[in-house]
Amino acid sequence: MKLSEVVHTLQAEVLCGEEWLDCEIDTICGADLMSDVLAFATGRTILLTGLTNIQVVRTAFLSDLVGIVFIRGKKPGADIIAMAAEKGIPLMATAYPMYEACGRLYFRQTQEPKRCGDQVERQSKNFARV
Amino acid sequence: MIKLKDNQKILLEFNLAGSAFDLAGEASSKIKRVLQQIGVATEVIRRIAISSYEAEMNVIIHACCGVMRAEIYPNRTEIQVEDQGPGIADIALAMQEGFSTAPDFVREMGFGAGMGLPNMVRCSDQFDIQSQIGKGTTVLMVINH
Prior knowledge:
Chain A is α/β, with parallel strands linked by helices.
């Protein structure tokens, strides 16, 4: 999934890093515990979090996250946005709460390709019957 | 990109102040930037950055002050963090995931979940910790490149 699809799925506002939206992501992590992020982040990961402090951006930088989405309409201060822009970390903000934001992204990432696969399978069965 | 020769090393040293939460992670960020400049593999940098960040946070959360030293060799990075703090009464217990003595306000910042020491062990190839009650704690980590 591309970062731009995350923005679209969550109807998110891009706070900085518009130029990185074409970037591909592998993993999505929803957490308010930064140590959990440090423990589990692998590959090209984005973080969904309700925390808006400076540690979120430092954690993202140090663990190579490719973006941060702030949930439930929260937005960090201008200094934190500036720091993320300087470190090349895109920041987004969505009105969805954590559960719904994760659910929407999970559906987008997993269910939709399977559903497409089902359709292909059904079509081929129909075709076989004919 | 700068390439380290076989007999070369880069020494970085940072003084850490307890409770300086606004600066927490700055020292580790500087170490990460140097590792990027000398072309260390991304996955290795991530392990070094995470282990040094967790160690740096521990000093800021628990101690009054400390020193973090990073020695970068062509084949490995050694991180040594020495603090003047309360010390750890039971190291085996502190190494368990989920065990923490951090105050609530630290948890509200997203830390103090009892993952710091386990994360350091997980990310490093060699890990050593020594602690004396009332004096402080020293952590040594070696990460092979």
